[in-house]
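Q: My labmate handed me this sequence with no annotations at all. I'd like to see what the chain might look like in three dimensions before we decide whether it's worth expressing. Could you predict it?
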Amino acid sequence: MAKAASTRRSVWKIAREALWEGGPGVCHFSITNACNARCAFCSFAYDRLPAAARQWVTLADAREACDILRRNGIRIVHFNGGEPTVHRDLTAMVAHAAQIGMMPGLDTNGALLTPRRIDALADAGLAKVCISIDAASSVVHDSNRGIPELSERIRRANAELKRRRIPTTASVTMSRLVDYAALPEHLQALGFGAVTFSYPLRTLPSSYRACAEDSALVDFTPEELHTAFEAVKALSTRFPVQNPVASIEDMQRHLRGEPEVFGCLAGWKYFYLDWNLQIWRCHHWDRPLCHIRDFDGTQRVRDGCTACMIDCYRDDSVMQHVGVALSDGLRAAAHGDIRQAWSHWADRRNVVSLRAAVRTVRVWTRVS
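A: Here is what I predict for the chain of 368 residues:
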């Protein structure tokens, strides 16, 4: 009886937070800038980043940072880097995040996901994994990453993660290495049930360096990139794609210099925390909001920004628009401003947002 009552209280608390806060906050926590791969389109690459420049978050600082994030409404934390699995304390960080009620995810190249490592992470409470894939060919992918037999390691890791009921998604950077038509068959062979595409980046003004200005692999003309987006939309009819079509079409408007439908919620619901414990509104911003120990929510920014094309912020903003609109409406109604409340609830974008969110939930249900 006590357990059932506790469960009901937890469900009610989550529902209340969703209604009044517009859904969960998300933080992308780069616990190191070190990496064991040599990707041609990334400045974190092992042969690009000098050894003297490699940095690591301590376990104590990571725990404190997660505590602060949790107090400020952040419910989902993505551990990434660099390559997060090279950090010796990753499992302990995942465990702490799970213990304080966060949903820990992992963004990785998959090279170090051995069965023993997967079991440890699963026991710690890891909720989901994104594994980078660069091409529809194991030879091309492994060559770009500079890690022999990487694709075979990923295939084995996917099988182990499935055994532990941890959903995985292939994360594919839109580069000249990608053969979109051949991608579904290759991803299925590796054990993936879904894919998300990272929109190509050449420069980032923040401390994040998952880009390479001099790489021809991600140097597209607007017309070429528009064609690539069309290929992604076509692929979504054959294989589960997590990027909402509404977000992809906004990126195409971005390329054409047209007004976009959905503004970004980075700085309001989504954040980037780096290895120096500086918290930023996103990877694209040119200055941090503050040190994590100073973060109390007053630094949040909400301005409908459309300056960049970073998928992890732009896609999520489309899906969470309806939740934020519902929350905004409830707050307005609580202050007696029914007209303002109705303007939030009657926003036509809510229908598009809800459809995108439902579609993504269905994808996750399929791969879980």
